[in-house]
């Protein structure tokens, strides 16, 4: 399979899965196993193209970011709380991610961990959806500081590949009284500092490997643009699905995909 085609396929996988509660990293790891490519060679590619999906959030929600920026200049309390909540929720992932970086990297090479995490995460989503009723928080700026900290720590569970950063963030927010749409959008916005931080860390730690890597900047650019375009479509559809049907469809997908992956990995 040509490197260009691999770049397009991985860009599609990233764009589809980054903001759905199904684990983009987990799917990229399983894709590496399925297609038989060298995951070590393409590992940096997988990290960098996530910025394409993040850019989709900036483009789709530019009015929100513009309004928040104007509010900060005017010292608007709502804008200040909005930014405060994003930064506070980001801190646990930054601290714990740096502390456990080597252990996290080791898990990235374990596709069976991903498969089981998909199944367990799907069951967890169904449980949270059933137990959580009558959310009281509508709006990111309205999330109390203590609950924001809780969401930040819950997001750290996603350091286990296959758990899903967006899934952990959304389920954490739901369990703490945040309504569905706000929980989903909070996960979108929180992805920006989280994934930027992860990308900068990987670039800094693997600079020499990037320079000498077989995967070139052409492939990275193709994957980046592909992830960006696909993510725009997926985010729009995701918000609509969640508003009407909740997160159960994604939970059942996780369970089915995880079981299929466990069976395939056990028999190959």
UniProtKB/TrEMBL annotation:
Keyword terms of this UniProt record: Antibiotic resistance, Cell membrane, Cell shape, Cell wall biogenesis/degradation, Hydrolase, Membrane, Peptidoglycan synthesis, Transmembrane, Transmembrane helix
Its record classes its membrane topology as: Multi-pass membrane protein
A GO molecular function held by the record:
undecaprenyl-diphosphatase activity
Where does it localize?
Cell membrane
Keyword field contains Cytoplasm = no
What does it catalyze? Answer: di-trans,octa-cis-undecaprenyl diphosphate + H2O = di-trans,octa-cis-undecaprenyl phosphate + phosphate + H(+)
Cross-referenced HAMAP family, in alphabetical order? Undec_diphosphatase (MF_01006)
Designated name of the protein: Undecaprenyl-diphosphatase
Organism, scientific name = Sphingomonas kyeonggiensis
Gene for this chain:
uppP
């Amino acid at each position: 399979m040509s490197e260009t085609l691999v770049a397009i396929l991985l860009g599609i996988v990233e764009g589809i899965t980054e903001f759905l509660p199904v684990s983009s990293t987990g799917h990229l790891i399983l894709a590496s196993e399925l297609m038989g490519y060298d995951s070590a060679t393409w590992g940096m590619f997988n990290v960098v193209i996530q910025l394409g999906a993040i850019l989709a959030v900036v483009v789709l929600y530019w009015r929100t970011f513009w309004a928040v920026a104007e509010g900060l200049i005017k010292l608007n309390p709502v804008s200040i709380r909005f930014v405060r909540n994003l930064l506070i929720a980001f801190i646990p992932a930054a601290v714990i991610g740096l502390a456990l970086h080597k252990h996290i990297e080791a898990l990235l090479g374990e596709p069976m961990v991903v498969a089981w995490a998909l199944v367990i995460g799907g069951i967890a989503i169904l449980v949270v959806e059933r137990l959580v009723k009558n959310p009281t928080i509508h709006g990111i700026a309205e999330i109390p500081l203590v609950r924001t900290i809780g969401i930040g720590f819950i997001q750290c569970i996603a350091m286990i590949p296959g758990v899903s950063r967006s899934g952990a963030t959304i389920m954490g927010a739901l369990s703490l009284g945040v309504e569905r749409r706000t929980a989903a959008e909070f996960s979108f916005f929180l992805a920006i500092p989280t994934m930027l931080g992860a990308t900068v860390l990987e670039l800094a730690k693997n600079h020499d490997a990037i320079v000498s890597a077989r995967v070139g900047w052409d492939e990275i650019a193709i994957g980046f643009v592909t992830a960006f375009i696909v993510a725009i479509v997926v985010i729009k559809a995701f918000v609509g699905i969640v508003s009407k049907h909740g997160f159960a469809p994604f939970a059942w997908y996780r369970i089915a995909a995880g079981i299929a992956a466990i069976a395939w990995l056990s028999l190959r």
